[in-house]
Write a structure and sequence with these properties.
12 helices; six-stranded antiparallel barrel; single chain; Thrombin, subunit H; Pdz3 Domain; alpha+beta
Amino acid sequence: MRMKQIASRYFGSMAVGALVLASLGIVSPWPVSIEGAAPNFKINNEPIDRSTRANSFAPIVEKASKSVVNISSTKKMERSPLMEKFRRFFGDQFGDIPEQRKRSSLGSGVIVTKDGYILTNNHVVQNADEIEVTLAEEEKQYTAEVVGGDPATDLAVIKIDASNLPAITITDSDQVKKGDLVLAIGNPFGLGQTATMGMVSAIGRGFRQRIAAYENFIQTDAAINPGNSGGALVDIKGRLIGINTFILSQSGGSQGVGFSVPIDMARNVMKQIIEHGEVKRGYLGVFPQDLEPEHVKYYGLESQEGALVSRVVPDTPAAKAGLKEEDVIIKFNGKPVEDSRHLRLLVAQTPPTSEATVTVIRDEAQKKLTVDLTRRPDNIAQMQRQRQGGGDQESKVLTGVAVTDITRQWREQFNIPSDIEGALVRDVEADSPAREAGLRPGDVILTINREKVGSAEEAMKLTQQIEGDRVLLRVWSRGAYKILVVNAGRNG
């Protein structure tokens, strides 16, 4: 310690003192900085071996990104009534208020043919007055025209006037497996082309929230953010497997739950849009629902695979072919049916006016029916008739369930179509077997153990005839048809 003090005092600087100490064989405990001397970095400039995917995805991104474009769409907006009132009260003292304003949105797209066809999301270009496309490696912008869109899958096809474009390579999305590595390429937040990596978290995702929607999403944790919509989801060979569509997020940004439309579905949609200007889907005419464990027990099924028919719409292909409510559809055109969502996809992907085979389980036996499909209507109108009735009654068997006839007031309150006849559920006790099975106030009981219900009184009579522990109900519930199995003897 004495030596350090002497060195510092006589040599007047930390740096010089450190050099003296070093010459004496003493290592300085503090960092040394000498003006003009470069830091002694440890440097290795050997290039990364990018010939293997274990080290880099750069070759894949470079290849696939050439086919991903940035899309800017502009919509003209009329002057709002509020602005008109503002002008009327205050005049033109604030200057002229333009008749129209423009609102722009950013998204992505994927070049799928060399002559300029581009796949994107319908919400990226819907109602746009102007669409500009910028290629990844060019500063030139192209004006695009909308060929057509399909809201049910949120897909659209646009076209630019160009040739010899870098069309992406497409693969079979049915071969995608949970756990596969994938890359998402797009234009998040308008930053420009960006690539993120993740894996396939799930396949065949659907939310069953809209009967008119056809959902079969690939779920991925590759970061997808606003602006990525319409971009590419590619596998580790750079082949297109999906069109990035939306995310689930509480923050508005990526939280690792993104969804892409499989390219197999997108190709079918694109083909129909180019050929017909719209998508034509097959129509069967049933309301399917998923099978629950109670259904499996009640119907004596082997598994929950299949779709339970909760309603057959009159005068439709299903009705004409002999399908019945409570049939369990296990195959469509020879393909096993996984659930109600899968059945809708299979029917929708079958051309209208074509013949299809439907295999059902009815009374514990298989039956094959031939159906002549028609084109799915844009709007399925419901015939309206009026019905009125009496007061509350409680079922002695369906403990905790109060029913009443459907009056005009009840129809208005619960938005019940006039062609729905049955017993309206006024109340369901919280701890009752019926509530556990899914029965709710506002539901309409249509049948009890396959017997039609026309009124609350008929519902009462039928419940008094129930034998055994289980009751089978077919109900109308907020626009959907359901079949419920209630364990009537659980509390009895």
